[in-house]
Amino acid sequence: MIKKIDHVAIVVEDIERALGVFREALGLQVSQTQSLPEQGVTIAFLPVGESEIELLEPLGPDSGVARFLATRGEGLHHICLEVEDIDAALAELKGKGLRLINETAVAGAHGRVAFIHPKSTHGVMVELLERPGSR
Ligand code: CO
């Protein structure tokens, strides 16, 4: 069901400042930056081999990412697992009793995504992603 770790997402206070570490010090390249107002975040993707690091910066004080930053500070926000068929994956996980944040997939930056509640995955939120054309 799972193909690979697609990306690991880190919440930061300021993407430009964080790029001082991830781009300048670690030497990673930015493949994409994007504001997603409906999700309340600005994102930057930095490819690392077959996976990526995603930096998340809240756009305003009302998003889930802003609340995460306010209560937990900067740090690991979620890991994203690429799946072939997200609808089948969600049905299977729901059947196994996992708590889903998204019962059905929603549009994400790279395809259809859904989040699993961290209470069901030992404290780390898990994002599932189905990339276009994967089935
Ligand atoms: Co993500």
What does this structure look like?
The chain has a single domain (2-130), classed as Roll (2,3-Dihydroxybiphenyl 1,2-Dioxygenase, domain 1), CATH 3.10.180. The longest helix has 11 residues, at 15-25. The protein has 135 residues and is of the alpha+beta class. It has helices spanning 15-25, 64-72, 86-95, and strands spanning 2-11, 32-36, 41-48, 51-58, 75-83, 106-107, 112-116, 125-130. The protein is globular and about 45 Å long. The model has no long low-confidence stretch (mean pLDDT 96). Strands 2-3-4-1-5-8-7-6 form an eight-stranded mixed beta sheet, sandwiched between helices. The protein is built from three helices and eight strands. It binds cobalt (II) ion. Cobalt (II) ion (CO) is lined by residues 7, 9, 54, 78, 80, 127.
- Look at the structure and give the CATH class: Alpha Beta
Gross geometry? globular
Order of helices and strands: EHEEEHEHEEE
For CATH, the homologous superfamily is named as 2,3-Dihydroxybiphenyl 1,2-Dioxygenase, domain 1
Low-pLDDT ranges? none
What's the pLDDT, averaged over the residues? 96
CATH topology: 2,3-Dihydroxybiphenyl 1,2-Dioxygenase, domain 1
Which ligands does the model contain, each kind named once?
A: cobalt (II) ion
* Domain module count: 1
